[in-house]
Specification:
mainly beta; 7% helix; Neuraminidase; 362 residues; four-stranded antiparallel β-sheet
Length: 362
């Protein structure tokens, strides 16, 4: 009887240790313990979170607001509101990226939807004296809709701007090389077309995308996360000039008609797919020692599944060896994620009311 009581007590302690503590630490069996802190709250539909060269977090809200958040104090400082933004459904002010060479050229790129005929545009602002000014339109007339706008931005080491676009609710356009929809686009920092793009005179880097909302470069590879329909959310490695199948292919090339299309169009299969879907959104790479268990992982946030997923990469970075979930249903829909140089991770929620910036550490 004494042995039974001791065993039951040990089981109780073990189960209790897996629950979230009052300090914000959370743990799942076999996972690393992470500490979660609400850095800022009272925001609405956060779409982007970027760690800036000024050691501040730069964020967008879908209504048109751009702000900076102090990662030490959590103070939110409004920076600029874009008056012509039209927030309709999933559209509005979406992605943002800062020029890596910010000291020489303090450029801030944003992508947003506007107008009565509803289009998307990419605009470059110049930051000076605590303000954004001198807007320059880099790309205009991107098809937009109340759903499927893509709109994640990334600047690569070779100083090219990558822009993800969704199919804007017209799936066939994803395979149309004359349409900007359902693509990953690549332009110079002034909006001109690079000479080494796959097709001369075209901004298109890859095609066949449904709604790509995560983009990160690591391991010499370009990783992308993408919303599927009712099945097959994806993480892909994006290759120059390649086709990713939508709408003829959903996820892997495993259906009979899909196999035929994949063979004929040189389709690249995802390195990970989810059915049922989780609504994959922001994506970042983790290479820090702060949370050593996450080193060489992709970190993905999702909307429908309301969680953070660690995707452990293999040494070559071309396969996912394992995955673990965190923050499940703790903060609602999660849209944006970035990593700071010190290894802390920042996440933005997108519930439409009292949205938060979360800080993840160990």
């Amino acid at each position: 009887m004494k042995l039974l009581i001791v065993s039951l007590f040990a089981l109780f302690v073990s189960v209790s240790s897996c629950k979230k503590s009052k300090s914000g630490a959370s743990q799942n069996p076999g996972d690393v313990t992470i500490k979660t802190k609400v850095l800022a709250a009272g925001l609405s539909h956060i779409w982007e979170v970027v760690y800036g060269p000024d050691q501040q977090l730069w964020i967008t809200e879908r209504s048109g607001k751009i702000s900076r958040v102090n990662p030490g104090s959590g103070v939110v400082s409004p920076l600029h509101t874009i008056a012509e933004v039209v927030s309709k459904g999933e559209g509005g002010l979406l992605g943002m990226v800062l020029n890596p060479d910010f000291q020489a050229n303090p450029w801030v790129y944003v992508v947003y939807d506007y107008g009565s005929n509803y289009k998307g545009k990419v605009v470059r602002f110049t930051y000076s004296d605590g303000k954004l000014n001198s807007p320059l339109t880099i790309l205009d007339q991107i098809p937009a809709a109340s759903i499927h706008n893509g709109s994640r931005l990334l600047i690569t080491e070779d100083k090219k701007l990558l822009i993800t676009t969704g199919d804007a609710s017209d799936a066939d356009n994803a395979q149309d090389m004359n349409s900007l929809s359902g693509k990953i686009l690549r332009v110079n920092l002034d909006g001109s077309i690079p000479a080494d793009n796959p097709v001369a005179g075209s901004r298109i880097w890859s095609l066949g995308h449904r709604n790509p909302q995560g983009l990160v470069m690591a391991n010499g590879k370009l990783y992308e996360s993408e919303h599927g329909p009712n099945n097959d959310d994806e993480v892909n490695i994006i290759l120059k000039g390649r086709n990713y199948g939508w709408p003829e292919v959903e996820g892997y090339c495993d259906g009979n008609s899909e196999k035929v299309f994949c063979a004929a169009h040189n389709v690249v299969e995802p390195i990970k797919a989810w059915t049922p879907t989780i609504a994959t959104s922001g994506l970042t790479y983790y290479g820090s020692d702060l949370i050593s268990e996450w080193k060489n992982s992709l970190l993905l946030v999702s909307l429908k599944a309301s969680k953070l997923t660690q995707l452990q990469l293999n040494a070559a970075g071309d396969k996912i060896d394992s995955s673990k979930d965190y923050l499940i249903n703790e903060y609602g829909r999660l849209r944006a994620i970035c990593t700071a140089p010190n290894g802390k991770v920042y996440i933005g929620s997108s519930n439409g009311g009292d949205d938060k910036i979360l800080e993840i550490s160990k």
